[in-house]
Amino acid sequence: MMPEGNPFSTRYTQPGRLEYQFPADSNARQLVERLAACGWWGQIVGPHGVGKSTLLQTLLPELTTAGRTVSWWTMSSGQRRWPAGLQVAARSWRAAANVLVVVDGYEQLGYLARWRLRRRCRQTGSGLLVTTHRPGNLPTIATLSCPLPTVQRLVAQLLNTNRGLISADDVSSCYAAHRGNVRETFFALYDLYELRRRSAQTRQPDGGRMP
């Protein structure tokens, strides 16, 4: 059944709502095993909008199953220093708790803030898993891209049985226009879907809703 409203709304596309689409030779458990083999230190690398945050959300159950206590932090654009809450939480990290510090948007932090974070994790025996646009000095456990066929599958999943307003060519055009940025592709499809839905409603004699 198709979700009410626009299927490309952020409530349907935000991290955690769509499951990450793994390549055929990979899955969540394998990535967690790779992270464990690296001493619970690792980075997920990829450009903006390819699903790094979604992958983190998908890994959470496996991380918990592996006995990790996740301390999750999302950095805002331009955030060069630790948020106040992170400074408080860092005082309680300890090896016995099997803490895994997860930082989404690690590249936003300044050099000194990143260095302090790594040092604090070493001091407390905590793991560190980050997402970043560019490789840094952590082991890389995954390098992400989101090819067009994967985006087509995600769009089909969002549209479900109601695919009349958005075609495969629409998806291809939006994907190309935004250079493979899935988040921006969804934003563009949101606008296109809304435009066509309103146009279709206007053409209906009674002005009612589309079936």
Please give the domain count. Answer: 2
Under the CATH scheme, which class of the largest domain? Answer: Alpha Beta
Q: What Rg is obtained from the alpha carbons, in whole angstroms?
A: 20 Å
The CATH homologous superfamily of the largest domain: P-loop containing nucleotide triphosphate hydrolases
Structure report:
By secondary structure, the protein is of the alpha/beta class. The chain has two domains: about 30-145, Rossmann fold; about 145-200, no CATH class. It is built from eight helices and five strands; from the N terminus they run H-H-E-H-E-H-E-H-E-E-H-H-H. The chain has helices at about 10-15, 30-35, 50-65, 85-90, 110-125, 150-160, 170-175, 180-205; strands spanning about 40-45, 70-75, 100-105, 125-130, 140-145. The chain has a five-stranded parallel β-sheet with strand order 2-3-4-1-5, sandwiched between helices. Helix 6 packs across helix 7 (about 170-175). The longest helix is centred in the C-terminal third of the chain and has 22 residues, at about 180-205. The radius of gyration is 20 Å and the shape is elongated. The model has no long low-confidence stretch (mean pLDDT about 90).
